[in-house]
Amino acid sequence: MNVNTLAEKFTDIYSIEPQGMSSAPGRVNIIGEFTDYNDGFVLPCALEFRTVVLFRAREDTIVNVHSLDYPTEKESFSVAGKITTGPSQWGNYIRAIVFVLKRAGYSLPGMDILIDSNVPQGAGLSSSAALEVAVCGAFNHVADLGLTAQRIAVYGQEAENDFMDCQCGIMDQLISVKGDEGKALLIDCQSLETETISIPEDLMLVIINSNYPRKLVDSEYNQRRLDCEQAAAKLGVETLRNTTMDKLVSIASKLTINELKRARHVISENNRVIKATEALQRNDIDSLRELMSASHLSLKHDFEVTVPETDGLVEICQNVLGDKGAVRMTGGGFGGAIVCLCRSEDVLKVKSAVDENYEKQFNLKADVYVCKAGDGLKVISL
Ligand code: ADP
Ligand code: MG
Question: Taking ligand 2, which is a single-atom ion, which protein residues have CB atoms under 5 Å away?
Answer without folding.
Answer: 126, 128
